[in-house]
Structure formats: structure tokens, C-alpha cells
Known about the structure:
This protein is of the alpha+beta class.
Amino acid sequence: MNLVPTNERTRPYFDKLDALASVIRENADRAEREAQMPRAIADALHEAGMFRIFLPRSMGGGEFTVPESLRLVDEVARIDASVGWNLAICSGGPLFGQCLSRQAFEKIYGAPRGVSAGSLNPMSSRAVQVEGGWRFSGRATYASGSGHATYLMAAAVVLRDGAPHIVNGVPELRAGLFPIQNAKILNTWSTSGMRGTGSNDCVFEDVFVPNDFTFDWMNAKSTWKHGAFANVPLPLQLGGGLAAVVIGTARHALDALAELAQVKVPVGTRGTLRERATAQIEFAQAQGLLRAASAYFYQCHNEIWRKGEAGESFNAQDHAYARLANVTAVKLALQAIDLVADAAGMNSAQASSPIERCWRDAHTASQHVLLNTSRFEVIGRVLFGLDPGSPVI
């Protein structure tokens, strides 16, 4: 495993990765076939406490900071991209959960296997206020990890008198968490990459959600957390985990090329791949791109956390620069993987090749709304001093 900064709190989790890797690799092909994370992997992650890294120790958690969690996700994605993605999503549930009442948070995540999955898209669902809470109906799209979650989070447009409620020119949005058995998981996840994430849609109709289990989606903030988790805006706590998956996947691809280069003798040559100048050049370029991506990415997230711990304020430019670090790191990691695939030749096209899977997984992950190329336009608008033109920076 890659050596990463650890401390007394986090080291036990990183120490478990070698044992987890064997379970993940044994079930990787099954995950591809079934488009779902196999129960054996989910069980192993639960037993290792991986889904509870953000919880306090009093709840059996690891009390990770956000930057510490990114390094763990990075390392798990270095084993398997889909598992890294599900870890980022499901371990990150408490980041949303901290916006609920403390009692609701403890009910959801205090359960031995309490895990939430959900959707960031509010436009496919609606919420109507009733006495004591809200009634949610709609569809949570691309709900990664829903197959082994206990709660589903849905963001929704608030309806009043049957129409969207507009506040200052934008729809009012509400998010709520409710037991996932109140939803139906559809078999909609059919993609070329990230197949093992089981990112299926979930539909639900007229589900009552008590007030304590809901929060204002556009102004999400904890009323009871302290320190950086309370000071860092929720959007800045999110997205980094998904980018870390792509970085870890690129590390996996480079590991695979380094191993392949020791034994492959390209057609028409007598030496191994590592002796071929083209492979040497592309391997070095890929290493440089990935190191640059990683350095920029972690420097940015460490600085966000430092500001949060110091109680400093965050402005629109802080949001833009954080998103820029995530998207740029993803773009550089994709370039590194493309170089690896080219250097590997026909091996990178074989379905049995880890490089082929890394390529599919990373390019699929990069299309997430928080990581794709369209974010550059929004970032550029903010840095030019314009309105972002989007509710999501």
C-alpha cells in the first residue's frame, strides 16, 4: 500500500487495507457482472468500520477529518474504483446527517450498520409540508450504495399550493432521510464503468419524513456540530471524495503498468516493455501528471480544513477554487490513465486487464456533475466576478 500520513486515530483503518484488498479482488468480477457491490465486500467494510470513519468514537467511529477521509478513499480506490466510490458515498452520509437534529443523526448512524445513500438531484422529487414534517415523492437518481443502505436521502423541490415555491427567484429545496424500505430500488444502473457501485435509481411515493430528519437543502448547516465540520460549508466537504476515487484509480493503473512492463515483450521486439522508450516516456509523464494532481488536490483540501478549524469565513472564490482543485485533479488523473493505456498496447483493451477496467471506471466517474467539464465554466464565471449561473459551484 502507498504510505500516507496517519496518526493514532486513523492508522488502524489504513492497517486493515491489505486484508480488505483480498476480499475486494476476490469479488471484483462478480461486482462487474451484477452491477452491484457484493455482500461479501459490504460485510468486510462494515467489519473494518470503514463506513463509520466520520462518526465520533462514542458511536464506534474514527473521528476522521475530511482530508484524512480523502486519503483513505484514495487508497481503497487504488484497489478497486467502485469500492472506493461506495466508501466515499456511504462513509460520507454523516456529512449530510449532521444537518439533521442530533437525535435523528444518532438514530440513523447509531445503528450497528447504519448507512445512508441518496441523490444530489432535487429536480426529480417533490416535498410537501404537513403537520410534523414533510411528504416526499419522486425519484432519487444514481443512488450509489443503495443496495446496502439503511436510509435513503432525497433532495426535493418544495411544493406549496401544488406549485414550486420560489424564494428570491429560485425554488425552495428540502432534503430528507427516511428508511430505504420505503423506496423501491430499480435496476437502472447499466454503464461501461463503475459498474460495482450499484448506482440505481430509487422511487418513493408520499413518504412521511419528520421535521428532525429534514433540512434546508440550499442552506445546509449543522445546529449542533462544532469546529471545522460546523464552519466549513457543506459543499466544500463534498465532492473531494469522488475526486479521490479517480486519483486512486490512476494509481491502480500505474501499478498495473509497472507490473506488466516487467514481463510483457511487445511484438517485434526482444526486450520487455519497460525497455521500450515510448513506454518509459509515457510512464514518466503519467507519474508526473498524477503527482501534480495529488499535490494540488491535497494542498487545497488541507487548506480548507485549516480555515475551518481556525473559524475563518468562506466566500464564492473559496468554493470555486475548491471545485477547481477537484476537477483539475480528475482531468490530470484521466490524462495519466490514457498514457498508461497507450503504453500498455493491446493489453489495455483486454477485458481481463486491470488497466482496461481502470480506464472505464475513471472516465465514467469523471462524468459526475461535481467533476465534469461543465464545472470549469461555473468556476470561470466566479473567478471573473460574475454570478455562477448555477446553484452548484
